[in-house]
## 1
Amino acid sequence: MTVTLADVAARAQVSPATVSRVLNGNYPVAATTRERVLRAVDELDYVLNGPASALAAATSDLVGILVNDIADPFFGIMASAIQSEIGGPGGRAGGERLAVVCNTGGSPERELTYLTLLQRQRAAAVVLTGGAVEDEPHASAVAAKLRRLGEAGTRVVLCGRPPAPDASAIALTFDNRGGGRELTEHLIGLGHRRLGYIAGPEERTTTRHRLEGHRAALAAAGIEEDPRWTVHGRYDRRAGYEATLELLRRDPTLTAVVAANDSVALGACAALRESGLRIPEDVSVAGFDDLPFSIDVVPSLTTVRLPLAEAGARAGRIAMGREEPPHGGIATIRGELMVRGSSGTPRS
Amino acid sequence: MTVTLADVAARAQVSPATVSRVLNGNYPVAATTRERVLRAVDELDYVLNGPASALAAATSDLVGILVNDIADPFFGIMASAIQSEIGGPGGRAGGERLAVVCNTGGSPERELTYLTLLQRQRAAAVVLTGGAVEDEPHASAVAAKLRRLGEAGTRVVLCGRPPAPDASAIALTFDNRGGGRELTEHLIGLGHRRLGYIAGPEERTTTRHRLEGHRAALAAAGIEEDPRWTVHGRYDRRAGYEATLELLRRDPTLTAVVAANDSVALGACAALRESGLRIPEDVSVAGFDDLPFSIDVVPSLTTVRLPLAEAGARAGRIAMGREEPPHGGIATIRGELMVRGSSGTPRS
DNA sequence: AGCGTGACAGCAAGCGCTTTCTATACAGGA
DNA sequence: TCCTGTATAGAAAGCGCTTGCTGTCACGCT
């Protein structure tokens, strides 16, 4: 039914071994023979059987990219950058690899299952992006799985994710804490003293780090934080919208709202406007990530730019063994404060 | 080194065949035996070898999702919906499938290579999303490849993509033409007579269809189009920004700008504002797709909502054989005009 | 002339699983 | 009691490819 290596070999009048070697190009084959083989491949429209070759060679050309939410540009941008370096089709020549992005939806179980699936496929490399879940049993399960993957020869790289406690994987981490701190310092510098904070889901590292940075800035300025000023929600505009309404309900005198990320900030802006508040005259707003739309909204968003594409590209190269891992296996990538229209001095 | 089926069998004191059957659950195995096997699997921390099982069974649990640009929420949302229905981890129970999204970057070659890679992996199904490239040789190469995939048992579904000429694949198409027409009719209804159009890349079906809809509306209203009113660019904000500047340069009297999609519209808004024009008082703006941010920008964007998530989910179910394909293999999905703040009556 | 030496090509042994067919065991029914 | 049917387990033959090892041949050297 389907064409196999043997068929090609027969047609080219060579042994299957020779065909395999022509296709893999890692063993000397005379030019004329190669030619003959390639012609046969072409004529028969032969396509290598991936599973069979993966089995025989004990390696595969699959590279997994785990993301929390593929519909979120934060992950999309990173995934895109990683993938372009993985050198899937169109990347630099050489082994064509199938870069596959897996959407965990932020669920620890799915993350684990995808990891198992990739392990099952004997993936060549795995890149995990975005914040991790801090739930203890899950965290150690993931760590164990990553260790096992590493032992099996799969290269594991974390991108925008805190290093594993046992440092078993190479990690490119975003300095969420530092960015969060800088952002809030900026607002404090403008004169704000009552700042609401819309945090992400409780159990995520990203959420915690950004919040810690925020609080560190408050503490450094001697501002005592009111527990009512913090609300948790998901990382999307809807959550930002609702959280802002809640914040306003709890304390209408807030002069600034710091959001967990740009999408949340967008929702916050909508809520503020609907509440009749002007930005930034009445309330300042700040985001995080600097996604593409952030500069276009009105007023443009004050935020912390994270070099998502650069980090992704680097992670991709490291995963492919095309770049040296950072010294010590861990690199911290800093964000850059982008001061724009959504932040201003508080109303007196 | 690595644990194999045979190791598990030895430990559980059964034959490899039995272990395989326990794992695949499609053959009667006594409860006590099953139990013993599962315990052994657990104790040895055994993970099935995907390639080996795919080879032996001649099927795999990979499902491919092709997207033009993973960093674009348009595709992210669809991919996410498809994936959740594919029932990757966390989906409904049963066969766990590895849904992999492949980023073609809009390049025909990469699209083709990914298709080959998926064919090589003997993918269970493939979903192609978004507009196709109209370049003839490429189009027929893709069609041929899809046909071959179909013959090999891979289910092929097109989502948000025009049906293949030979109707070889199931297609869920967006009515881009109708949406484009409706949108422009709306603007004409408001009194606009000089409308700029920022189209996507020339060779894409989506671009052409939306533009045709626009022109049909103009023609129906007896408005003769000035060729200077159309500019082509990519589907991103940057392109929208630049195209708008160009449009303004060519004809400063335009009263409306219709963009290829929401991101482009966002860039257009930025350019207009920087040119000192108010929206919609001086110039109306319209987008397409109704991405999540479109309702939050100021002014909120008049656009055509495409049910991306619903379409994706449906495509996913069809790909998994969990929903009947539409009658005739083709379904057209209509968009819905969303009239919002960015469109108004033209300045007299 | 004899022979070491490259440069290629082929043989054949798996890689780890699935699955068909066969074997065994026990329960009823005749 | 013997035979048949049913439930369950095992033996073994691949699935299509890779690769270590074994030729074979044509040179060029001594």
## 2
Amino acid sequence: MARFRETVRTLLRERLLDAAFERVAEHGFDKLRMAHLAGDVGVSRQTLYSEFPSKEAVGEALFRRELERCLVGIQQGLDAHPGDLRAAVEAAVGFTLTLARRNPLIRAMLTSTGEGGLLPYLTTRSAAAFELATTALGTYVAETWPSIDPVARDLAVDTAVRLTASHVVQSAASPEESARRIADTTVRVALSTGAERLPAGTARP
Amino acid sequence: MARFRETVRTLLRERLLDAAFERVAEHGFDKLRMAHLAGDVGVSRQTLYSEFPSKEAVGEALFRRELERCLVGIQQGLDAHPGDLRAAVEAAVGFTLTLARRNPLIRAMLTSTGEGGLLPYLTTRSAAAFELATTALGTYVAETWPSIDPVARDLAVDTAVRLTASHVVQSAASPEESARRIADTTVRVALSTGAERLPAGTARP
DNA sequence: AAGTTGTGTCAATAGCACGGACAAGGCTGG
DNA sequence: CCAGCCTTGTCCGTGCTATTGACACAACTT
């Protein structure tokens, strides 16, 4: 019955996150003021607090929304190469690294120096991001490459996600080159049997 | 300060008009029920009455919104042919007649038989539509053809608008053919001096 | 040490949507 | 013809929610 009020709530949330995106992208998260954010949307500060219980919640929601948008591109990159693990991973990772380099929010997150920044969401508190990305890549691999050994598959997925995250926060080369290297590594891990002959002098438990 | 509530109000208005458009286009204006309209958007009937004081106001707003959309196309048709009066009028009139033939709202307005229909807005109560269309065409002609005699210009603009309205409610031929004829008539009126020699036997006051 | 700024919380007020009910008028079927 | 039903338009009481203004608290500045 009250369907309209629900859409208003989501609209308010979107507007708040839009305004937060603008301010954070320009001046960083620590320079963001709750009063300014509420004023941008044309709402009282308490209304903002009724939607987001704290400033930290704003940052978390902001990061989650951007992450979900990113995951859409990752999923598209995977789906564009069904059956070709290397190309799929390369496309998905390349998209992620390119987006991370261009997205002003992520740039602001990485360049923020202060204590109350958003950087933890990309590093120490990135469990949610890891989980989502790992699930997306894991289901893709499990569906299109069911023959791969599950142990190797999980290792490969985890490797791809963690390497990508590493390159997001500290890119060594171009996104394309990094994506190529990560895809190469992922394929190597995925196709390994765990029983290869090791070079002489290498111990294995 | 309260900018968000304002956008919510306009959003509600748009949603209501969207729902009204759907229902009117399908079943006609007289079959539209205020309770259904409110239910479609997910709002109480009283909220609907707070936005539109009467059902007639809904129909009026619905017609005005459609008219304004139509005027955008008319303006584009005029602007696409600067300096060529015949082509500009033909494009604008052709767009209008084609839109009127395809638009389900206008079709429903014309086919409604009942007393409480929307037809008056296209005929007896079409002062607003005439005014807007006349202004658009008038400013175009005045800007791009300043050399035309003002009397002939006003006559031509009025003729074009009224002929177009006539073809909207009672189309004789295809929109293209009608547009061509109306444009021809408009140009003849616009370029007339009011002092032509009349055929023998014709009286002039 | 005092002032400033910003976060988070609380209480009182005002506004708005809601549900329920009502009168008035028109339509329909018996 | 008339009784019932539907629909429009209006009113009022209620409840939810945003707003306003204030406050405590912490960190930083002067």
## 3
Amino acid sequence: MKPRITIKEIAKQADVSIGTVDRVLHDRGRVSPETKERVLRIAKEGNYSSNVYARNLKLNKTYHLAVILPEKNSYWVKHRQGVEKAVAEYDFLQVDMHAYSLAVESQTEIEGIIQEVVAAKPDGIVLAPIFLNENSPAVERLKKSQIPVILVDSKIPLPNCLSYIGQDAFQSGRMSGGLLHEGYSENYDLYVITFQMADLYNKTIAARIEGLENYFEEVNNSPQVIKINMEQEAMGYSELIERMLTRKKPVRVFVPNSRSYFLATEMNEVKQELKLRMVGYDLIEENKMYLEDGTINYLIHQQPKQQGFKAIQALHQHLLLNMEVEQQQFLPLDIITKENLMYCEH
Amino acid sequence: MKPRITIKEIAKQADVSIGTVDRVLHDRGRVSPETKERVLRIAKEGNYSSNVYARNLKLNKTYHLAVILPEKNSYWVKHRQGVEKAVAEYDFLQVDMHAYSLAVESQTEIEGIIQEVVAAKPDGIVLAPIFLNENSPAVERLKKSQIPVILVDSKIPLPNCLSYIGQDAFQSGRMSGGLLHEGYSENYDLYVITFQMADLYNKTIAARIEGLENYFEEVNNSPQVIKINMEQEAMGYSELIERMLTRKKPVRVFVPNSRSYFLATEMNEVKQELKLRMVGYDLIEENKMYLEDGTINYLIHQQPKQQGFKAIQALHQHLLLNMEVEQQQFLPLDIITKENLMYCEH
DNA sequence: CAAAATAATGTTAACGTACACGCACTAACA
DNA sequence: TGTTAGTGCGTGTACGTTAACATTATTTTG
């Protein structure tokens, strides 16, 4: 731990007043180039960084944070819990949170909310950028606002994004490949099932599927991969199951989002017959049920609560502590099975 | 976020000086009972808590932390990494860490070190209390010192323990039961293997085994549980394997500490024959190897790096931020299999 | 060349807390 | 009567930073 020089000491060494030093350090101008250089040199040599305590004491500012998340369901409610836990912990540090929630899964709504949030000029934003078109005017406004944004769950390109907090979607796909292929003994069919048309354009889903495919590129007995989008192919569940059965091979299913219970509902009766193994995402109630009854074998847990907590923590570190924040904070790929389901309260 | 009253404001409302308020709040005496009561009332009503920034600015203190961990091996080195990461992150907050390491697994050494540490009067201690007798004079000294201690990995009774950070050993044993019993189809033998005599008195190991047993109390087709301590029974590995084979039942093994690789080394040749399934602890290199080759099926990851990180974080919250810290911080029970081994960098 | 404009720098008062110090007063005791 | 100890208070200063304000030097302009 190197000692740190103070403004006062810099001023003394540079033979100027602390006001001048302050102007240099904050780049407020009105300083001659020579003085500026001298001050900067001494600051650097002295390992200067501003004293967090003095700074915040003086500023005595309440930080306004905006949190934009989808309407509560058992996945997103966890994000909120994490956020609230963090805010409660950092309570004494004068943060003031305003939560916005997306009731409808529509692009219009999220754009409206972003506009509102930007207008309110918070000091930081936590945003789950789902249903959000990268090139929409709202995103433009976000960029222009310069407000630091923490993206959770999904990623979009954003210059003022301070940090992305979530899983590495590609790696989670690769890992799913491993889970599905494990214990290979006979040829099987691998189904990748999506439901809505929108899923086809979702980057996170795409990355998960790419990861899966990447895994099988490196594997010897690669199975046949059958991708089906239910809406696109206008296929019913009974039809799907029929099709699976006629091929007479064990069925392994990858559902790259949280809707694996859609399938599980239909398949739990015939899972023996299908020789089913299924991997899905997220510990929502419906999925948990089918994990317990064995229709779903693995769920990949995205640790939503942790995501929410870390989002606020990142803003705290950036705004209050003036710290560098890691651009990407990948959370561990957490495999949940019937066996450890009851022990994961993270 | 409730607004918080300041000392100055309390002074004004109570019609006394700041100094008096200060004496009341710090219980320095020299205040009449009536004044004291009045000040306390107003402070409480005003939701007073000291301003972290002003406090630390004024105190301008370097905090000395002592970290006592066993000598580096691939498990404990992770603790150190976590500790160092946290110290680096909180660097600007003037913490100064002194690391002590236990070269030998002896009670004498750890007691000597504790004595040394207590004499140095650090502001906080991180301690892995293994090889440490609860009633030893060193522990007494620790108690008397009143220095806040963070216990990691294992727990001992200690009044000045600020927080325990580690796994819930009992629950991890229960979960192991689930992992071993999963997919029950035929009767099997369940071996609980320990190695040294010392293991018989280790509380963490005991709790894990109790958890396992607790699981099987609730299960229908409970297997025969065979507990073996290799040192106590003076048994060789070939002898053990011989014994397992003659019983002609599938073998499932629970190793309640990180030494599962001891067994794996001997058994990886005959694992088919034994119909072996094994659950162990900790991602040390030797274990990872046998996880990959299939001799060990599951490893329970204790997230040592996270433990180290959280330990420092807890001290930071207590010492610098004046926060309440949770007495027990249980880390999630993380199951590592061949499939997700490569993705767990936590 | 003086006045006005601008550039460069200095001064100072907070922010909320901790703590050393000092003042006024009382009571006890020599 | 003076000395001393103790009690109940108030005052002052410092911590490092920020930013408004004041002052001085330098250049520009009519």
